[in-house]
Amino acid sequence: xxxxxxxxxxxxxxxxxxxxxxxxxxxxxxxxxxxxxxxxxxxxxxxxxxxxxxxxxxxxxxxxxxxxxxxxxxxxxxxxxxxxxxxxxxxxxxxxxxxxxxxxxxxxxxxxxxxxxxxxxxxxxxxxxxxxxxxxxxxxxxxxxxxxxxxxxxxxxxxxxxxxxxxxxxxxxxxxxxxxxxxxxxxxxxxxxxxxxxxxxxxxxxxxxxxxxxxxxxxxxxxxxxxxxxxxxxxxxxxxxxxxxxxxxxxxxxxxxxxxxxxxxxxxxxxxxxxxxxxxxxxxxxxxxxxxxxxxxxxxxxxxxxxxxxxxxxxxxxxxxxxxxxxxxxxxxxxxxxxxxxxxxxxxxxxxxxxxxxxxxxxxxxxxxxxxxxxxxxxxxxxxxx
Length: 386
What we know:
- With 386 residues, the protein is of the alpha/beta class.
- It folds into three domains: 18-83, Orthogonal Bundle (Arc Repressor Mutant, subunit A), CATH 1.10.10; 97-155, no CATH class; 175-385, Nucleotidyltransferase, domain 5 (2-Layer Sandwich).
- It is 44% helix and 12% strand.
């Protein structure tokens, strides 16, 4: 009777450097490592210790074919290569370059132009459109395209058809000329202010920056604010619900010589309210001086009612208009920014009248310690304009 004897393995021994062997032992005990890497580290260390392939397969509950695969890779390419999966592509990509270009072209078209209700694409909507029309336009490779497929194609560009980035088209053909005029006024004011420091005489032309802040909401609490408690609550606590009491508009005129603010708080912003601000300026400044107003093209500034009032005060007011969409040229914007950061921030009131009173109180606080607002960046703008 013949007995089959197990043949000796012809596979060579695995040579591992001590540092690499220590790394494999640490990897076997790392709970956060991928399971496949832990298994492969166990295979390599066991084989290095002298275990046979069949024995390793039984101990790790794996097939002999799988165990032999990683041992052979380690023998051929080293232990590091045996721990990782080799990148491979079994076949050429099925989505052609023409099909990808078609998806990109669709992403650059609004869905409403293709008969949909939406203004902008979502990934799902674009994928649905691609699947529905891929065959008829000659791209069958996209007949089963899903959202992830569309995402990968758009990410290569990259394209974000679901987003909107706003821009401002320049609509005033005289933008540069008007901006130059405003900046020249600011330069003249700076020279006037320097001369006043020496002579201490009032200017014959007083320059005032005028603007409005409309739509400021009067909001009331529905429950009282809770104060902070040291060691327990670091901030004020405020109930999420609130009550709307209407809106107001702040009409303000900022003196560019001494920082004084003339302001009104009105429920509406019409010619009658703007004329009231002009009357306040007329009564505040000496009658012999000219009041030069820097302001925008709001309808109340140039309406027939306003023009009729200006005719009753000849040579008293002089307009310097900022260009369309050039509100950033008006220094009064910095005044409203100061209001927003100080007394308007988180403001809550119990009535519209309280909001008006507190805004005027805030203006009085500004006038108690006035600050002269200046335009400082003449050099950079001169390079562009002059």
